[in-house]
Amino acid sequence: MNVAHWLARTARVMGDRPALMQGMRVLADYAELARRVRRRAAQFKTVDGLAAGDRVALFLPNCPAYLELLHAAWHAGLAVVPVNHKLHPREAAFIARDSGAALMVVEAAADRAALSAALAEAGSPARLVKPDHGLDGPAGAADPADPVARAAEDLAWLFYTSGTTGRPKGVMITHGNLMAMTLAYFCDVDEVRTEDAALYAAPMSHGAGLYNFMHVLRGAAHMVPESGGFDPAEILALGRAHGSLHLFAAPTMVRRLVDRARADGVTGEGLRTIVYGGGPMYLADIEEAVAAMGPRFVQIYGQGECPMTITALPRHLVADRSHPDWRSRLQSVGRAHACVEVRVERPDGVAAAPGEPGEILVRGAPVMAGYWGNPAATAASLRDGWLRTGDVGHLSQDGFLTLTDRSKDVIISGGSNIYPREVEEVLLTHPGVREVSVIGAADADWGEVVVAFVVADPVVGAGELDRLCLDALARFKRPKTYHFVAELPKNAYGKVLKTELRARLAAAGRP
Ligand code: AMP
Predict the structure, then answer these.
(1) Interatomic CA distance for residues 161 and 158, integer angstroms
(2) Under the phi-then-psi rule, with left for phi > 0, alpha for psi from -120 to 50, and beta for the rest, what region is 415?
(3) CATH superfamily of the domain spanning 1-175
(4) What is the Å distance from ligand 1's center to 161 Cα?
(5) 410-508: which CATH architecture?
(6) In the chain, ranges of CATH 3.30.300.30 domains
(7) Whose CA is nearest to atom 10 of ligand 1?
(8) pLDDT for 401-447, tens place per residue?
């Protein structure tokens, strides 16, 4: 089973359907998309000399070529390593080295000198190529062959997630995982129709890119906004112009979309499905969204280690205001997908009773194969097939799961995950910084913002710490506020009490 077969199948039966769009401009139909994919796959195989199982990193913003490169890699039997394009060159170079990527596709305007230096410093042999790689390959390179055979347990997508240890870990997602996830979507989340288009307003390197499969299978189009990202006015206009769009939006994006729709006096016409997830959606926000825009919303809960397929709250349950449990269901993340088992476990390992909190575990076909080259982390997260999500929550009598906490301390700002430890490690490289603790503070615009508590020599200022972060981290991970303190609150074991720091911020009413 190779997911590349899906594109070949659709191109055969619906070759004239629009496949790639930039805004409302159609760039390619399915026959043309499949041709480009075969040509690029031929380049990977015969010119670049890559073999089944080799890795290709994509360090790109959203662009139409993204989809071609993903499917070309799979067609050639390779695994993709999508890298968040906002990462610092050093962070991207770490991923290139760790994954053993042979090639890294970077945007034409990228600072290639900085990237080459970072790759050399990290010891990665990855060769930098441009997004049009393989399109103008040797004449006749268009590969007539079927996709290279892959087994369900073969690696398809190596997704880097920042770990609590500060170093990102490669989550191994197989062809079988992607197939289970895709079929589960049709079973428990939503239908996709040929006349639909998937609008990529969130990063394709992350969850948004995974929606391509459902749309490929149904012969629906793939649309990259002209802005390449999330612009609420543009999205509302595209909805009206196209008439049947699907998009994934983090809760903060939903809020901005609803604000814009309200301000413009529109209801989001043409936005058929807005899938939300990736972070907590506050009840007031989703209530307002449904009131302003109607039955367009569907919720999913997943994580890189079990992509989008732990639970779902389908459209009719999000929109059914007449149901007596409507509000409590909206506060939940829905019910377990048909293809997984979900369990809430108490700290003593016993299954929690309904209503009782515990860690959320999931087992089933979409659960990752493990962490790339990291058996210790794999053993800590996967036991007897059960994935320990690090999320805390409880199940209701009728199977609705409500999340209450994140035991991993991750900060989710604007839909992006930031692990405090990686920011802390950078700040601690400053010779004048003695101790540091980074936490998330509630923020009306971003969901959470990064705040650092620092114990430092009196001469150390916020400006130089900010410059230090800019030199080593993606911009979105920088602390927005620094609090210089004499000491950090700690428990008897010397562990910093983040809960107390959070309480201080809450009491002060500002980050
Ligand atoms: P990632 O691995 O980057 O996709 O992040 C996954 C984490 O985001 C999960 O472990 C949850 O903590 C959080 N998350 C994902 N979906 C939801 C949701 N629907 N509601 C609340 N939190 C969510």
Answers:
(1) 10
(2) left
(3) ANL, N-terminal domain (3.40.50.12780)
(4) 12
(5) 2-Layer Sandwich (3.30)
(6) 410-508
(7) 303
(8) 999 866 667 788 988 888 787 898 899 889 999 889 999 998 988 99
